[in-house]
Design brief:
This is MnmG N-terminal domain-containing protein. It comes from bioreactor metagenome. By secondary structure, the chain is an all-alpha fold. The protein is built from two helices and no strands. The protein has two domains: 42 residues; 48 residues, no CATH class.
């Protein structure tokens, strides 16, 4: 999905990337042009899991962790269903 990497990366990182592109432009002229696209990759750490009970509650009362952030699901659909499940259990 196209977007502005400046909205998700710290200023110092973006400044370093810009400096790198300017330096590479001396080796490969034209690299630092308005036509150059940068791709920001997403990193997911599925092995990091938060300990939760059968209702997805942590050992802290009323603190629930679910979805991809908890290392429980791997995608939007599964995380959405996980959220619906927890919400229904909260109000039952």
């Amino acid at each position: 999905m196209p977007g502005d990497l400046c909205l998700v990366l710290p200023y110092r990182i973006m400044k370093d990337i810009d400096e790198m592109i300017q330096a590479l432009d001396h080796v490969s002229p034209g690299l630092a042009s308005d036509e150059t696209l940068l791709y920001g990759v997403e990193v997911k750490f599925y092995s990091n899991k938060v300990a939760v009970d059968e209702h997805f509650q942590t050992n802290m009362k009323n603190l629930y962790v679910l979805g991809d952030g908890a290392g429980i699901t791997r995608g939007l659909m599964q995380a959405s269903v996980n959220g619906v499940y927890v919400a229904r259990n909260l109000f039952d």
